[in-house]
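User: Could you write out the 3D structure of this protein bound to zinc ion? I've included everything you need below.
Assistant: Certainly. Input first, then the structure.
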Amino acid sequence: MKALRKLAATHEHFELVEVAEPKPEPGWVVLDVIYAGICGTDLHIMHNAFPSWPPVTVGHEFLGRVASTAGVGVTGWVVGDRVVCEPHSLACGICHLCRRGHAEVCMHKRSPGWGIDGGMAERVHVPAHLLHRVPAQVSDLDAALCEPTAIVMTALERTPIPPGGTVLVFGPGPIGLLAAMAVRACGAGRVVLVGRPSSQSRLDLAQRLDIEVWDSTQVDVVARAQEITSGRGADLVLETSGAQEAVASAIAALRRRGRLCVLGVPDSPTLQVPWATAMNRALDVTFSLSSSWASWDAALALMAHGAVHPGPLATVFPLTRWQEAFTALSERRVVKALLDPRAP
Ligand SMILES: [Zn+2]
Ligand SMILES: [Zn+2]
């Protein structure tokens, strides 16, 4: 079968190659991949800016159908089931994080796509206990974006949404767009996506999704946040950009006793932030990483009810045209790229 692999730990060493079919091990299943999503992490893996264990098939976000349940001890799944899969394979199960139910941040975890073979292939081999069934009414395109939606839902498990409150989402990338949709679905009053629009396509998409956008190069975000909240400031900010200016402006835009939830990965190890303002406002600050087990079901439930509809973010490329997809994504010509291994 065809698989997109990082063959060596050198810069940009990706290649579409023929590999042997995976054989189901005890407790594991083989999936026929429907779509595999490319995310920022994959670009980092390509450029050796994220750890990987080559040679390895890339892709940690995928939708598939169960192709084989021949692995010993696999119960509850039949061939043909449409599923998504948490990327928390090889979590140890015995460390203090696993025992607290946080296998997603286990230090021993090796995910498909960098630690073990991933989903940018015709088939992928994954532990059955990480699967989630996709409800019938959820489209393939929506379900293919379950992983980034679960990332957002995990952040919302950690940071409650103020009912009817004002929420700013910094960063108009896929996570920011999904966060704006999810926050709106979960009871916020006014939701604004704030960012420096790196491309017109992202702004157009936000508009099509009926999301209010403030261009931070044009709007005084802090003044505007106060203006729409009778001088108080925003109740909650979700920071998805990782940019220093965005973090500073997020803190300045919040009200006293407001909440900041951080999802954006910064480009540099340290950021200068207005710490005194954060202290003076008695802010609650939460950092959210990876996706919990419960967040996957929450993401699928919101999609099933039509409350979150990620499909429009996606542009599909055949797996054979993976280079085009990676380039389009890194040049920000598309918001989210999916690879289809079934397409010619
Ligand atoms: Zn990802
Ligand atoms: Zn562990």
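The radius of gyration is 20 Å.
User: Perfect, thank you.
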